[in-house]
Design a protein that fits this description.
8-stranded mixed beta sheet, two-stranded antiparallel ribbon, single chain, 225 residues
């Protein structure tokens, strides 16, 4: 993969067939690689060409988890969502180079997630090493504000996965689960001490590698919404 500057990546990402960008706030429109406005709400299975379950990774950064999951589970579809196009470029180009047709990316703010997916269109959501927003709890990706959006797009019993190094975000999310009486499937505050590992945990993002090198512990929880 050739090295490109940030501006080059911003330009190129608009030409990639697996990337959709939001250029108009508060609309359902996304722009595809042909520069056309498209409403993908309820049409993601058409894009993937199958009826396989769809998982979204929020604040996906460079797309390591979305691409890693797509490699691991070819019978499922994955969409990475982030606002920073130069980061998305890396995951999108890697997926194209590897011939992965079960992964796509949306460049947009996460606040608009319900604009891009129909009710019940998603089966799972992954939140991997998101900003814990220590000064702004309402902006945490497991706050009530965002959970209300997730309820609209997840199918009944849909899963949310949180993988984080932040004890504040982990405890905050656990409190939300308990207070809302959600079905907790699994939780642990130091997953790499466990004798049995989930296959998904073998995927390491850029940020997770940094956290591990600093000696931080990695936490994970999974619950039904």
């Amino acid at each position: 993969m050739s090295k490109k500057g940030k501006q080059e990546k911003f330009v190129e990402i608009g030409t990639l067939p697996n990337v959709f960008q939001n250029h108009e706030v508060l609309t359902n429109n996304l722009v595809n690689s042909e520069g056309k406005k498209v409403n993908m709400q309820g049409h993601w299975h058409d894009f993937f060409g199958n009826d396989n379950p769809i998982t979204v990774e929020l604040a996906c950064g460079k797309g390591e988890y979305a691409v890693g999951l797509a490699r691991m589970y070819p019978e499922r579809n994955f969409i990475g969502m982030d606002l920073k196009g130069n980061r998305l470029w890396r995951g999108a180009t890697a997926a194209i180079q590897e011939g992965l047709t079960n992964v796509a990316f949306i460049r947009s703010q996460i606040d608009f997630i319900s604009y891009y997916f129909a009710p019940g269109e998603l089966s799972e959501i992954w939140i991997t090493f998101a900003d814990p927003q220590l000064e702004k709890p309402r902006k945490r990706l497991t706050s009530n504000f965002f959970m209300d959006w997730y309820r609209k797009v997840l199918k009944p019993g849909g899963l949310i996965h949180l993988k984080t190094d932040s004890p504040e975000l982990y405890d905050f999310t656990m409190k939300r689960v308990i207070e809302e009486k959600l079905k907790l499937q699994f939780a642990h505050d130091n997953i790499y001490t466990l004798p049995e590992q989930m296959p998904e945990w073998t995927i390491k993002t850029y940020y997770e590698q940094m956290h591990l090198e600093k000696g931080l512990t990695i936490k994970y929880l999974r619950f039904e919404l």
